[in-house]
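Take a look at the protein record below and tell me what you see:
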Amino acid sequence: MGREHWKKIWVGSAGNMVEWFDWFVYASFATYFAGAFFPEGNDTAKLMNTAGIFAVGFFMRPVGGWLLGRVGDRKGRKAALTLTVTLMSASAVLIAVAPTYSVAGYGGAAVLLVARLLQGLSVGGEYAASATYLTEASAPQHRGFASSFQYVSMTAGQILGLGLQIVLQRTMSTEALHSWGWRIPFIVGALGAAVVFYLRRNMLETEVYEETADDGVAGAEKGTIKALWAHRREAFLVIALTMGGTVAYYTYTTYLTKYLSNSAGLSKQTATLVSFCALIVFACLQPLAGRLSDRIGRRPLLITFAVGSTLLTVPIMTMLRHAGSFWPALGLSLLALVVVTGYTSINACVKAELFPTGVRALGVALPYAIANALFGGTAEYVALWFKDAGVESGYYWYVAGCAAVSLIVYVTMRETRDIDLGRVGRGDRAAVPAPVRARETAADSAS
């Protein structure tokens, strides 16, 4: 890959990392600030309240997906990416200064809710804008590898959040963390967003977007629901193929720390360290799996994920429940994340490869955001609901069932590796001709 490609990937990934740092620190620090915004009571109930507000952010993602997807298709990927990080910075500031229940009653929870709504708008557009940008910015034979950096940066954001949590746990008392220390990561996130705003103001637009005359979408219809409706089959496909992957991903990343401390009986420090170590390995796996998809195709990896998640979720979650210590918990977490890698490493480019350039950002953003609102955003709340009802194992079967539904989609969908992004939607012209693919593969091997 050329230097210019790496520069585009770096700028797109850096912003994505800060976006998801802000998004995930809400979840990872929820155990510390849950009591700050709600009256005293059952600890699980307070976590469910904060999880409910977390889920509300997901329900704003379809709105953000529509709004920012439209901006990305009509004004450019750069404009959408700059706007998303601005919204995320504002939300981080609001959480950092939100008053507690003892100061403003439920007013603090209201500020928290507004902040999560802004985060939902931002992330609803960020996923599609960065997925589209990273996919379009890479050479055709490297799309899987390049787009895998979306989840590298997403995971890096969570790793930084967990790393900061570990540092604060070791340098501050538990009382201080519950009192005011939980505000620190949101201040850090706001400052990071300001830096990324500057980087994105100077980023380069993708060549594919600048050459959209041959994509089959009229200029006035770019980024519109009407244009997306013409590709409704692909939109519904995005929802279905996202269903199993997003539930599994949030189960083994966002919810894992709470599950290990609230159900498996590990200390918060140990649970955080397990997640931190597992996510480092997970991030390193993404480019390897993305590169493999450039060689063998996207479908084999998606099918491997779905089969593994369907068959292994129940035994993995059951054994995690009785892990008891750091090493068993880490080993099981790594096994789960290796399985999930089959989805996370390539889902961005698979979705981007389904739509023409003039509706690609909206086509990825809106159906993906809907799927996340229905399944990803509610995963933690559903898990806590099963736990509160005394049938926690029911959640394991729920995750496995979602993966099974997606498996049907993966088996029946077409392969997208050889799609020409500039000609999607133009019938038989959408595929990269075999001689071109052969030349690209030969050149890649020679390099």
Q: What stands out?
A: The chain has a mean pLDDT of 86. The radius of gyration is 21 Å. DSSP finds 23 helices and no strands in the chain. The longest helix spans residues 107-136.
